[in-house]
């Protein structure tokens, strides 16, 4: 998308909801929750590098943004016909997003541990999920989707099911395809395409850094090799 263009409209959501998603994306840029660096890329938890870093935890300190998040998320789920009984937040960053959403919508809320606690009941689920419940898994961010599968397993072990996953930010690096293998659909308040379009139209992303980011997302292995970085395959 060229500078000045901002028309990223979800056909299932319509233009009004799409504009709200763009406003949320702009707030991430203005709060520096999205940062870009072509010369000194960020190191990720995997050990890989990236010219873009998205820190969704930063936004939980912004009450105005969290109200907008709840508005966009609830409208998005409603427009897409998502049906669920319980909202579950993944440890740790998904917990505040799940809590805000569940409170606004009057839904029960639980949170999921990455690993079972080593004492007491050794549970991975804090709170109660009724057997047969439809659970909406809420997370802050999704990359390749691998880290979400353990949460899906924990919910399945509780005789419940996840058919929908909601994230604040989708890096659009294959997470939706991975979730589909587990019969779950991905929904994002903001995705990379929307964030880049908003930044370009607002003068927050110059052409050099945008080109580096596009190169990275097109072929991260080649991007690492050209810059002398080792690449860790998530598979």
Short recap of the structure:
The chain is of the alpha/beta class.
Name the descriptors:
single chain; 235 residues; alpha/beta; 6-stranded mixed beta sheet; two-stranded antiparallel sheet; 8 helices; 20% strand; globular; disordered N terminus
Give the rounded overall mean pLDDT.
Answer: 92
Overall morphology:
globular
Structural class: alpha/beta
The order of strands across the largest sheet is 7-6-5-8-9-10
Portion in strands: 15-25%
Total helical segments: 8
The ordered string of helix (H) and strand (E) elements is HEEEEHEHEEEHEHEHHH
Number of strands: 10
Q: What characterizes the major β-sheet?
A: 6 strands, mixed
What's the gyration radius in Å? Answer: 18 Å
Structural summary, described in words:
The protein is α/β, with parallel strands linked by helices and 235 residues long. Helices cover 39% and strands 20% of the residues. It contains eight helices and ten strands. It has helices at residues 15-30, 63-79, 94-105, 146-157, 175-180, 192-201, 207-218, 220-226; strands at 34-36, 42-43, 49-50, 52-54, 86-90, 109-112, 125-126, 134-142, 161-170, 185-191. Helix 1 packs across helix 6 (192-201). It is globular and about 50 Å long.
């Amino acid at each position: 998308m060229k500078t000045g263009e901002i028309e990223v409209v979800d056909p299932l959501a319509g233009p009004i909801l799409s504009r709200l998603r763009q406003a949320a994306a702009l707030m991430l840029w203005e709060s520096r929750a999205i940062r870009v660096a072509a010369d000194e890329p960020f190191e990720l938890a995997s050990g890989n590098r990236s010219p873009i870093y998205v820190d969704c935890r930063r936004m939980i300190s912004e009450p105005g943004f969290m109200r907008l998040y709840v508005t966009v998320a609830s409208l998005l789920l409603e427009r897409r016909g998502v049906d669920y009984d319980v909202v579950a937040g993944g440890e740790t960053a998904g917990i505040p997003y799940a809590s805000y959403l569940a409170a606004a919508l009057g839904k029960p809320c639980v949170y999921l541990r990455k690993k079972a606690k080593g004492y007491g009941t050794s549970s991975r689920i804090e709170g109660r999920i009724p057997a047969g419940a439809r659970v909406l898994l809420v997370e802050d961010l999704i990359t390749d989707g691998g880290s979400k599968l353990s949460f899906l397993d924990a919910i399945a072990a509780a005789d419940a099911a996840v058919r929908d996953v909601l994230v604040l930010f989708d890096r659009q690096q294959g997470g939706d395809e991975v979730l589909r293998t587990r019969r779950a659909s991905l929904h994002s308040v903001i995705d990379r395409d929307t964030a880049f379009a908003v930044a370009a139209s607002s003068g927050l992303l110059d052409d050099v850094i945008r080109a580096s980011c596009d190169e990275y997302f097109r072929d991260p292995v080649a991007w690492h090799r050209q810059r002398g970085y080792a690449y860790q395959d998530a598979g």
